Amino acid sequence: VFIAQSRASGSHRDLEDEELTRIFVMIPKSYTEEDLREKFKMYGDIEYCSIIKNKTTGESKGLGYVRYLKPSQAAQAIEECDRSYRAILAEPKNKSSESLEHDYYINNTRQEPRGNIFPFCGQPEFCSFEKSESRIQEPVSKRLSVVSRLPFIQEQLFALFDLVPGLEYCDVQRDPHTNSGYAVIQYSTAASAIYAKYKLHGFEYPPGNRLTVVFLEDGSDSSE
């Protein structure tokens, strides 16, 4: 579905190069590029693999990219690889890996969800915001309220919010009078909840049905 929608929206070749053949994965810090290639070569022909490293120490950050020759191969890898890799389609390759954690957690949270991809933080050092930038102008917490005009299916909503690491629970409720959907989501950290809120508020799930995501007071110190 991602491939079909993206091809209908613009240049076929550009989209294949930028969005449809490269996946972003979470890996053990001990992995080499050869280890990464070995784990993902079963899904198709790999053009290249790369591991994101700390520019100061040269150590792996536990994140990497795998680029396939065909979109169908990337899609198969996302669908069939172990869930521990948390594989998703990568952002277009116009961002430097050095600014990945800053871009994913600061810049991208200011954009409207595109509906086909939302990168996430996989390491503790990624899950922080610059306090001095004061980008979050509302009280925050680790708990979110999700409202929809359509009822939710527990497993589907859990799978959606579980794309952001740290999901602790997803409690789906239904209003018997309006048949609308309501759920409470809780993450292990406020950073994960903030990211989920700004990426999924307004997200159409299913298509045509926009989600309303707001913070719920959980008694924690929002200054964290």
TrEMBL record:
Quote the InterPro entries the UniProt record gives: Nucleotide-bd_a/b_plait_sf, RBD_domain_sf, RBM45_RRM2, RBM45_RRM3, RRM_dom
This protein's UniProt keywords: Repeat, RNA-binding
Leader sequence range is none
One Pfam family this sequence matches? RRM_1
Ranges of residues in domain RRM? 21-95
- Gene3D superfamilies recorded: 3.30.70.330
What GO MF annotations does this protein's record show? RNA binding
Q: How is this protein named in the record?
A: RBM45 protein
